[in-house]
């Protein structure tokens, strides 16, 4: 910068001016040195190696360790069983006719006419009575027949059902014997009507079971009357679900210190054991007893109305276990106190001393002198007989007919019930497997399904006999075990939202750097290619 003199002013004082500073041009922003090709390749190889590890090693390990094993199930066959297409329940019952007073040809003719009359009366092909001639020397219990008819000549036509054996005694006048050329017979019609009446409750019960399950229309019987359907529905609600073993608990509850003991073992052996023995092919029973002093009921009224019966059981204080060893418990309570059940009419003395609680047991009110310290077996006769009758009701035993006939009917009803329940469980399992593709299906479930279908087939082919009941029992147990497999039940409550909540915190911090590094590397590669292409174009122009 230089100072130049200017013309002086009046005072001859020299004035100097300062020239402006010359600006130097500013230099451009300093850029980093270009990457070496070896560094670019090294960075690309590092990113590529990370992704190769993820794709070739990480994903296979993740897939292997998190894949849910699903055993192959015959879903179509399972649904066919559930829809009733794999089995048409048929109960062919053999009825033996012993007609010693008739010639062979006359007996054959009577059997033929009776069979025709039965077929005309039957409206349910699944429950079919097949008549056959029996040998009188053979024991009716050993001929494999559901019922034996003994024909005896007499003055009139009567029918009597034996209370201890499955035998129907029919007397008939000799002039009612059909001729060889007859197309119908009053005796044959009478025998057919008696057979239909004898097995009417069994047929109605099986019809009700089939109608309440998903059976095809061609397999279903004709509709039941509303009254019959309502009665069967009440009996089904009252009875317990089938179990191979029931636990019977006999309890003596007293409102004071006496009585303090009872002869329950002798009473059971004398009055109830015979029925337990005949039920043994269908159910097993375990028994325990107890005595509870100073047991106050849930209702303190001396006269119990119908509304009081439901709250009489003091579940909070009475030691009543719901089940022992996994078997359903049936409770039989003898309560010694001053309570009585009110009569439905004030002019009639109360006659009922007990009531049945559906799917639970029975309570019996026993009145004793105040100084009774021990309850003898003879005193327990009526309570035990009541318990026996109610036990048959709780196990679903039919109400009509002799006891042997009722028990054989119970076996056939239980066979049908178990078969339908096992088939329904198979269908539920198949629908569950199709609705939840991510659910685990272990090999034990597939084995259980195979066993279930095998025993279902055997049960379907042998309905009406003890063999069919045994196979149906196994099928129902295997189906329940397969459906309630522990590893499958746990998967039902593990939705996909839970998986996202587990994976996202783990994979998010790892995936973000990998994805961003890959994106940046792709952008840099595309930029290098674009610059390379531009340089090549400039060289061509030059």
UniProtKB/TrEMBL annotation:
Return the Basic and acidic residues bias intervals. Answer: 20-39
Keyword Glycoprotein listed? The answer is yes
Chief location of this protein within or outside the cell: endoplasmic reticulum
Q: Which GO terms describe its biological process?
A: attachment of GPI anchor to protein; GPI anchor biosynthetic process
- Where along the chain is composition biased (Polar residues)? 1-11
What is a single cellular component term in the Gene Ontology annotation? GPI-anchor transamidase complex
Protein localization: Endoplasmic reticulum membrane
Topology relative to the lipid bilayer, per the entry, is: Multi-pass membrane protein
In this record, what's one Pfam family?
PIG-S
Q: Which UniProt keywords apply?
A: Endoplasmic reticulum, Glycoprotein, GPI-anchor biosynthesis, Membrane, Transmembrane, Transmembrane helix
Give the residue ranges for region: Disordered.
Answer: 1-39
Transmembrane recorded as keyword: yes
Pathway involvement? Glycolipid biosynthesis; glycosylphosphatidylinositol-anchor biosynthesis
Q: Which residues cross the membrane?
A: 46-63, 500-520
Q: Which family does it belong to?
A: Belongs to the PIGS family.
PANTHER family from the UniProt entry: GPI TRANSAMIDASE COMPONENT PIG-S
Protein name (database record): Phosphatidylinositol-glycan biosynthesis class S protein
> What is the native source organism of this protein?
Cercophora samala
Organism lineage reads as: Eukaryota, Fungi, Dikarya, Ascomycota, Pezizomycotina
């Amino acid at each position: 910068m230089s100072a130049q003199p200017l013309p002086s002013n009046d005072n001859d004082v020299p004035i100097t001016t300062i020239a402006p500073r010359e600006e130097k041009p500013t230099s451009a922003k300093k850029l980093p040195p270009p990457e070496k090709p070896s560094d670019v390749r090294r960075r690309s190889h590092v990113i590529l190696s990370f992704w190769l590890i993820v794709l070739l090693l990480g994903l296979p390990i993740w897939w292997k360790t998190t894949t849910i094993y699903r055993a192959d199930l015959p879903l179509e066959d399972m649904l066919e069983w559930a829809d009733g297409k794999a089995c048409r329940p048929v109960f062919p019952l053999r009825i033996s006719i012993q007609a010693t007073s008739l010639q062979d040809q006359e007996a054959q003719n009577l059997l033929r006419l009776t069979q025709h009359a039965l077929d005309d009366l039957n409206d349910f092909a699944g429950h079919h009575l097949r008549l056959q001639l029996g040998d009188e020397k053979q024991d009716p219990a050993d001929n494999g027949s559901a019922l034996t008819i003994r024909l005896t000549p007499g003055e009139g036509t009567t029918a009597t059902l034996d209370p201890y054996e499955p035998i129907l005694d029919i007397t008939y006048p000799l002039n009612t014997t059909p001729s060889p050329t007859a197309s119908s017979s009053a005796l044959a019609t009478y025998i057919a009507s008696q057979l239909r009446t004898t097995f009417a409750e069994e047929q109605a019960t099986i019809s009700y079971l089939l109608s309440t399950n998903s059976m095809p229309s061609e397999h279903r019987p004709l509709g039941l009357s509303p009254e019959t359907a309502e009665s069967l529905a009440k009996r089904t609600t009252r009875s317990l679900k089938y179990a191979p073993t029931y636990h019977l608990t006999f309890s003596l509850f007293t409102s004071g210190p006496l009585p303090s003991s009872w002869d329950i073992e002798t009473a059971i052996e004398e009055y109830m054991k015979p029925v337990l023995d005949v039920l043994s092919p269908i159910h097993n029973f375990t028994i325990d007893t107890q005595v509870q002093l100073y047991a106050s009921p849930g209702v303190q009224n001396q006269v119990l109305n119908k509304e009081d019966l439901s709250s009489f059981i003091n579940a909070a204080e009475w030691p009543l276990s719901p089940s022992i060893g996994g078997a359903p418990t049936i409770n039989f309570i003898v309560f010694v106190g001053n309570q009585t059940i009110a009569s439905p009419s004030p002019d009639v003395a109360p006659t009922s001393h007990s009531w049945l609680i559906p799917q639970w047991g029975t309570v019996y009110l026993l009145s004793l002198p105040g100084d009774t310290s021990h309850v003898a077996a003879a005193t327990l006769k009526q309570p035990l007989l009541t318990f026996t009758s109610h036990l048959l009701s709780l196990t679903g035993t039919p109400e009509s007919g002799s006891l042997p006939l009722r028990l054989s009917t119970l076996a056939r009803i239980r066979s049908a019930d178990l078969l339908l329940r096992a088939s329904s469980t198979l269908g539920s399992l198949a629908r569950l497997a199709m609705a939840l593709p991510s659910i685990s299906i272990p090999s034990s479930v597939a084995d259980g399904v195979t066993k279930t279908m095998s025993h279902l087939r055997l049960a379907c082919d042998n309905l009406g006999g003890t063999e069919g009941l045994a196979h149906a029992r196994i099928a129902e147990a295997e189906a329940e075990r397969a459906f309630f497999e522990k590893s499958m039940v746990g998967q039902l409550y593990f939705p996909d939202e839970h998986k996202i909540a587990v994976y996202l915190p783990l994979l998010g911090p790892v995936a973000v750097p990998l994805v961003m590094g890959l994106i940046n590397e792709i952008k840099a590669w595309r930029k290098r290619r674009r610059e390379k292409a531009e340089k090549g174009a400039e060289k061509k122009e030059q």
